[in-house]
């Protein structure tokens, strides 16, 4: 199809036609609608393909528009594309991944991804607003070495045998793949962003070759349409793919091994004080409220203190001290517990990670927290960002005070946590 003057996204149309009878017994084809595909490609430098695909899989909220997912799911369920007349929806930002099958070495994984939706009106409370995606992942294992890495998905409706699969997704093809390019042990928690210099790459498991990886990422999304809405859907598809390209560019910068160091961490933690300053506030406030040191070496400062807090064995989380506390920082153990990254951390809120008993225990101690500055929470169970249950022996929450003694945020430490 004709572009809009900027040829960064290619839009193609595959029309669906039916035969109808016209005068004198002559048959003719009548166009009903079809599928529009919007595709873009980009060159990636210093971005390990397996890490990128894993990040796209585990942190959908970083690049996807849930209203667009709802549009595609609605098209599958109703076999029509009533754009833009969809019911408004709000999504929790969380996703539940349900494995279906995988190969022996996990080179390929077939799974269902459920996006949890919430109705915006009381009249729709009883209606299911969840969206299910059938998803195929290739090459996301840390040790994967192959000719391509991909994440392909399609909305589904209760697994009917004849359901149409309008698939979309990502494929990464390395240009100069070596057997040791995709390093093992490198995690998605952006640990390297909080390390210093070359030590960061070694600590995260990233090999020097990671900084020289070149690959081509192809992004392709399909959109069903009706004939009278073809131009509107094409324009929507073009803009949506452009927004995804921008999101992938931001993610690529964050996970690139060449971006290791404190500066990258500070870019991710935009709006926060310098990471080292935040670490000092956390430790000083812990000692002020509880009368004991959080870390064994109380005389360290600056980047050394930050590294100690980052590698602390228990999960430490920070969230805003507001009516709806949103997470703003976590150490490595905290990111591992929540199964998230510094990039996606702000998609999680404090109330979402606790089960009902945990929320009651926390809310019952709010007044004590405000008055005394800290509270202890009994052992319990919380939820990771991927929907997995996490048990912990004890948790302590305390107010983090800034330089002017005002409350900057709320810190929590989960002791001896493990996945159930």
From TrEMBL:
Key words, A-Z: Nucleus
GO MF annotation list: DNA-binding transcription factor activity
MEKHLA domain residues: 277-419
PANTHER family in UniProt: HOMEOBOX-LEUCINE ZIPPER PROTEIN ATHB-14, HOMEOBOX-LEUCINE ZIPPER PROTEIN HOX10
Protein name in UniProt: MEKHLA domain-containing protein
Native species: Aegilops tauschii subsp. strangulata (Goatgrass)
Origin organism lineage: Eukaryota, Viridiplantae, Streptophyta, Embryophyta, Tracheophyta
